[in-house]
Automatic annotation (TrEMBL):
Reactions the enzyme catalyzes: [protein]-peptidylproline (omega=180) = [protein]-peptidylproline (omega=0)
InterPro entries: PPIase_dom_sf, PPIase_FKBP_dom, Trig_fac, Trigger_fac_C, Trigger_fac_C_sf, Trigger_fac_ribosome-bd_bac, Trigger_fac_ribosome-bd_sf, Trigger_fact/SurA_dom_sf
Organism whose genome encodes this protein: Mesoplasma melaleucae
Superkingdom of the organism of origin: Bacteria
GO cellular component: cytoplasm
GO molecular function: peptidyl-prolyl cis-trans isomerase activity
Name this protein carries in UniProt: Trigger factor
Main EC class the enzyme belongs to: isomerase
Cellular compartment(s): Cytoplasm
Organism phylogeny: Bacteria, Bacillati, Mycoplasmatota, Mollicutes, Entomoplasmatales
Main subcellular location: cytoplasm
């Protein structure tokens, strides 16, 4: 076999070319002919028992060439991979028979070129600032209240009582727009905590002060709602069935006993744990936000060449995700264009821009990981399992049977990348 490789810059593609000729190709054609003869089916004859005189009528050169091609695709690809290739593929190479004759088979393996990157500065960048991280008493109290929700008491209010913030209200509702009921705007026996912000802005506030029975409220859908409802006024007809007050348990050592948290026996310890948990979460969020902004700066500092085909392939994937998302909102692409006023070119332009950004972020982070050679140790893996076990309240050994080890390693490497960029910049 002979190997050559070629870049097709204008198309953003490359190809590995493998030529099989000489004795190797002659022998392959013989084997291919025998295989075709063995598998030949001719009416009136059993498979494998066809006279040679009859078989010759059906064993055409094209059948032999096709079989020989199928026989050589895998060995040719293995041969190409074993070479000292200079052109690396971004995706799986697709085999194409460029030439087939009695003398030779020329196989081309086509692929998208791997994008090229010259990584700029990614350490000691001062243009992105770190925010001071503090935990407020209100934030701690909000989390403690979430724990208390497990033991909350609901008590029916008197018949003449009015809805207040924090009450649990059971009610029927039906929404109308321009006098017509709209899809998804109706439910029976819905249970809602007033102030939980489950409904659109203004809905729950409008229910405060209402009593049992029928009522109407007017609201306006927000601009970031589904396109067919965004920014439009609506009227909801309500039938309030029940109003209950909610009473949180006392915040004391008895609550802590009921919660049964590991290594937490007193309310003071519980408060300290909650504060630490909130700090950990806020710190992680701040680090992620900082690193996201930092990567944009690193992209500016870098030289990145993206093949047209890679961008278009990424945009095609984003298009599928986008169409799936609007489908969940009860729309198809035609309705979406009508509601938003966007045309195909505008949508395509946005998707191409998103595809470029996504590919650039991927290339930059991949290159940094490669340069810094982050290693995943057994201790790090075990620590991750222990954290997951604590988070879900099940043994670490059980977690190990549920989690893909490669996905876990990928998460750890991403954590190492975030920690590295956060520590070495700002």
């Amino acid at each position: 076999m002979k190997f050559t490789e070629l870049k097709i810059i204008e198309q953003g593609q490359g190809k590995w070319i493998v030529t099989i000729d000489g004795a190797e190709w002659t022998e392959t054609l013989k084997k291919a002919k025998n295989r075709v003869m063995t598998n030949l089916e001719v009416p009136g004859f059993r498979k494998g028992k066809i006279p040679a005189s009859q078989a010759k009528k059906y064993v055409t050169p094209s059948k032999i060439y096709n079989e020989a091609y199928r026989m050589m695709v895998s060995p040719a690809f293995d041969f190409a991979r074993s070479q000292d290739v200079k052109i690396e593929p971004m995706n799986s190479p697709e085999p194409v028979p460029a030439k087939v004759s009695e003398k030779e088979l020329v196989l081309e393996f086509l692929f998208d070129l791997k994008p090229e990157i010259k990584l700029g500065d990614y350490k000691n960048i001062k243009t992105v600032k770190k925010e001071a991280i503090e935990v407020t008493n209100e934030e701690v109290e909000a989390v403690i209240n979430q724990y208390c929700e497990q033991f909350i008491m609901e008590k029916p209010k008197a018949a003449g009582a009015k809805v207040e913030s924090g009450d649990v209200v059971t009610f029927d509702f039906k929404g109308f727009m321009d006098g017509e009921a709209f899809k998804g705007g109706e439910a029976k026996g819905h249970k809602l905590i007033i102030g939980s912000n489950q409904f659109i802005l203004g809905f729950e506030d409008s229910m405060i002060g209402l009593g049992l029975g029928e009522a109407k409220i007017d609201v306006t859908f927000p601009e970031n709602y589904s396109p067919e409802l965004a920014n439009k006024p609506a009227t909801f007809e309500l039938n309030i069935i029940e109003i209950k007050s909610r009473e949180l348990p006392k915040k004391d050592d008895e609550l802590v006993k009921d919660l049964n948290l590991p290594n937490v026996q007193t309310y003071a310890q519980f408060e300290a744990k909650v504060k630490e948990d909130v700090l950990t979460q806020k710190t992680q969020n701040a680090k992620n936000e900082f690193v996201n902004e930092l990567i944009l700066e690193i992209i500016k500092n870098s030289t990145i060449e993206l093949p047209k085909s890679a961008i278009e392939n990424q945009a095609a994937d984003l298009r599928k995700e986008f169409e799936a998302q609007i489908k969940q909102q009860g729309l198809d692409i035609k309705k979406y264009k009508k509601v938003t006023g966007l045309n195909d070119e505008q949508i395509k332009s946005e998707l191409l821009a998103d595809a470029k950004n996504k590919l650039k972020r991927y290339l930059v982070t991949t290159e940094i990981r490669s340069k810094e050679k982050f290693e995943v140790t057994e201790d790090a893996i075990n620590a991750k399992f222990e954290n997951l076990a604590a988070q879900f309240g099940i043994p670490a050994e059980q977690i190990k049977t549920m989690v893909n080890p490669e996905m876990l390693k990928s998460e750890i490497i991403n954590d190492l990348l975030v920690d590295f960029l956060y520590s070495n910049n700002g």
